[in-house]
Design a protein that fits this description.
- The chain is α/β, with parallel strands linked by helices.
- The protein has one domain: Glutaredoxin (3-Layer(aba) Sandwich), CATH 3.40.30.
- The chain has six helices and seven strands, in the order αβαββαβαβαββα.
- β6 and β7 form a beta hairpin.
Length: 188
């Protein structure tokens, strides 16, 4: 059974690596308005107050990692990203985990899960997830790419790197890979 699951994961990763991506390194990053999750669950939520990625372009690099509550690799990647964020606190970079809400999930359930896990990285959300998915997490044929899905965007506003997946058995190697991608983006 373990071998079968590994094979399925490997095929998923391989197909993502070879997918006909809508976005590629060097492309301008789409700038959608995203919302801090804590604001989105507030009953007095004001959708006109969000975070526009383009507000960082020219001054800061951006790390966006898309995740779902069900994704086990995502649940390992997010704390690793938090550690990297803490290491890069004095650099011109911002880190965001972008929540993809599954059909049937409520914001209240997701809020409880995030609190339970103790995440401190900024989590973003957008109620019009189809727009975000179209921009960032679908290939040209409309198929969803696997999560976690990370975009590292250079200060120029162009995508520096795209990475699908997170090897939960080699967390330190994954953190080193992410740091290398960030260091490259900070130069752009």
């Amino acid at each position: 059974m373990k071998h079968f699951l590994f094979f399925v994961c490997f095929l998923t990763f391989l197909s993502a690596a070879n997918a006909d991506l809508l976005l590629k390194p060097g492309d301008p990053a789409p700038s959608r308005l995203l919302y801090n999750f804590n604001d989105a669950v507030n009953p007095n939520f004001n959708p006109s107050r969000g975070i526009a990625l383009k507000s960082f372009f020219g001054t800061k690099a951006v790390v966006l990692s898309f995740f779902t509550k069900e994704c086990k690799a995502c649940m390992v990647e997010i704390p690793a990203l938090q550690q990297i964020k803490d290491e890069y606190a004095d650099k011109n970079i911002v880190f965001y985990a972008v929540l993809i809400k599954a059909a049937g999930e409520t914001l209240t359930e997701l809020e409880a899960e995030i609190k339970k896990r103790g995440y401190t990285i900024d989590i973003l959300y957008h109620s019009a997830i189809d727009a975000i998915m179209k921009d960032y997490i679908k290939d040209k044929s409309g198929k969803l790419l696997p999560v976690p899905l990370m975009y590292v965007i250079g200060k120029s506003g162009n995508i520096s790197s795209i990475h699908c997946g997170f090897d939960t058995k080699n967390v330190e190697a994954e953190k080193n890979r992410i740091k290398a991608e960030i260091n490259k983006a900070l130069q752009k």
